[in-house]
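Reminder to self: C-alpha coordinates first, then the designed residues, so the page reads top to bottom the way the pipeline ran.
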Protein backbone atom coordinates (compact mmCIF):
# COMPACT_ATOMS: atom_id res chain seq x y z
CA UNK A 1 0.00 0.00 0.00
CA UNK A 2 1.28 3.46 -0.82
CA UNK A 3 2.40 5.43 2.18
CA UNK A 4 0.73 8.72 2.98
CA UNK A 5 2.95 11.72 3.48
CA UNK A 6 2.06 13.98 6.37
CA UNK A 7 3.09 16.98 4.28
CA UNK A 8 0.38 16.13 1.73
CA UNK A 9 -2.20 16.18 4.53
CA UNK A 10 -1.65 19.52 6.25
CA UNK A 11 -4.60 19.16 8.64
CA UNK A 12 -3.19 15.96 10.12
CA UNK A 13 -0.18 15.62 12.36
CA UNK A 14 2.47 13.08 11.29
CA UNK A 15 1.62 10.79 14.21
CA UNK A 16 -2.05 10.74 13.12
CA UNK A 17 -1.04 9.69 9.62
CA UNK A 18 1.21 6.98 11.05
CA UNK A 19 -1.58 5.75 13.34
CA UNK A 20 -3.97 5.58 10.40
CA UNK A 21 -1.43 3.66 8.31
CA UNK A 22 -1.00 1.22 11.20
CA UNK A 23 -4.78 0.79 11.37
CA UNK A 24 -4.95 0.06 7.62
CA UNK A 25 -2.03 -2.34 7.92
CA UNK A 26 -3.66 -4.18 10.81
CA UNK A 27 -7.26 -4.33 9.56
CA UNK A 28 -6.98 -3.93 5.78
CA UNK A 29 -6.95 -7.63 4.90
CA UNK A 30 -9.69 -8.43 7.41
CA UNK A 31 -11.96 -5.69 6.03
CA UNK A 32 -11.26 -6.82 2.46
CA UNK A 33 -12.20 -10.41 3.38
CA UNK A 34 -15.47 -9.27 4.95
CA UNK A 35 -16.25 -7.13 1.90
CA UNK A 36 -15.41 -10.04 -0.43
CA UNK A 37 -17.75 -12.39 1.43
CA UNK A 38 -20.53 -9.82 1.12
CA UNK A 39 -19.94 -8.72 -2.48
CA UNK A 40 -18.72 -12.01 -3.90
CA UNK A 41 -16.14 -10.47 -6.24
CA UNK A 42 -12.75 -8.80 -6.05
CA UNK A 43 -13.63 -5.48 -7.71
CA UNK A 44 -16.56 -4.69 -5.42
CA UNK A 45 -14.62 -5.90 -2.37
CA UNK A 46 -11.74 -3.54 -3.18
CA UNK A 47 -14.17 -0.64 -3.71
CA UNK A 48 -15.92 -1.35 -0.41
CA UNK A 49 -12.61 -1.64 1.44
CA UNK A 50 -11.29 1.60 -0.01
CA UNK A 51 -14.48 3.51 0.74
CA UNK A 52 -14.54 2.09 4.29
CA UNK A 53 -11.04 3.37 5.00
CA UNK A 54 -11.85 6.75 3.46
CA UNK A 55 -14.70 7.02 5.95
CA UNK A 56 -12.45 5.90 8.78
CA UNK A 57 -9.85 8.51 7.78
CA UNK A 58 -12.46 11.27 7.77
CA UNK A 59 -13.63 10.26 11.25
CA UNK A 60 -10.20 9.31 12.57
CA UNK A 61 -10.02 12.00 15.25
CA UNK A 62 -13.43 10.99 16.59
CA UNK A 63 -12.64 7.30 17.10
CA UNK A 64 -13.58 6.24 20.61
CA UNK A 65 -10.60 4.32 22.03
CA UNK A 66 -12.92 2.55 24.47
CA UNK A 67 -15.17 1.27 21.67
CA UNK A 68 -14.71 -1.81 19.54
CA UNK A 69 -12.84 -0.75 16.42
CA UNK A 70 -13.51 -4.07 14.67
CA UNK A 71 -17.26 -3.77 15.22
CA UNK A 72 -17.21 -0.21 13.92
CA UNK A 73 -15.27 -1.22 10.79
CA UNK A 74 -17.63 -4.14 10.18
CA UNK A 75 -20.64 -1.83 10.48
CA UNK A 76 -19.10 0.63 8.01
CA UNK A 77 -18.50 -2.12 5.43
CA UNK A 78 -21.98 -3.56 5.98
CA UNK A 79 -23.62 -0.18 5.47
CA UNK A 80 -21.54 0.50 2.36
CA UNK A 81 -22.55 -2.87 0.92
CA UNK A 82 -26.23 -2.18 1.58
CA UNK A 83 -25.86 1.22 -0.11
CA UNK A 84 -24.16 -0.43 -3.08
CA UNK A 85 -27.04 -2.89 -3.47
CA UNK A 86 -29.59 -0.08 -3.31
CA UNK A 87 -27.83 1.82 -6.10
CA UNK A 88 -27.68 -1.16 -8.43
CA UNK A 89 -30.46 -1.52 -10.97
CA UNK A 90 -32.87 -4.31 -10.25
CA UNK A 91 -32.64 -6.80 -13.08
CA UNK A 92 -34.94 -9.75 -13.55
CA UNK A 93 -32.98 -12.86 -14.40
CA UNK A 94 -34.65 -15.90 -15.88
CA UNK A 95 -33.18 -19.34 -16.29
CA UNK A 96 -32.53 -20.50 -19.82
CA UNK A 97 -33.61 -23.97 -18.71
CA UNK A 98 -37.05 -22.83 -17.58
CA UNK A 99 -39.87 -23.58 -20.02
CA UNK A 100 -41.33 -20.70 -22.00
CA UNK A 101 -45.03 -20.33 -21.24
CA UNK A 102 -47.29 -18.79 -23.88
CA UNK A 103 -50.21 -16.49 -23.13
CA UNK A 104 -52.54 -19.47 -23.67
CA UNK A 105 -50.78 -21.48 -20.99
CA UNK A 106 -48.90 -23.82 -23.32
CA UNK A 107 -45.18 -24.42 -23.26
CA UNK A 108 -42.78 -23.85 -26.13
CA UNK A 109 -39.86 -26.19 -26.66
CA UNK A 110 -36.45 -24.72 -27.23
CA UNK A 111 -34.48 -26.25 -30.01
CA UNK A 112 -30.82 -25.70 -29.34
CA UNK A 113 -28.48 -27.52 -31.67
CA UNK A 114 -25.79 -29.67 -30.11
CA UNK A 115 -22.31 -28.61 -31.05
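Designed residues (115 positions):
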Amino acid sequence: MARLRATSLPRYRPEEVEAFEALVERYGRQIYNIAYRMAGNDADAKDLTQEAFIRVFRAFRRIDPAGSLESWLYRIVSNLYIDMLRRRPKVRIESLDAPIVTSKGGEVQRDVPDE
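The chain has a mean pLDDT of 82.
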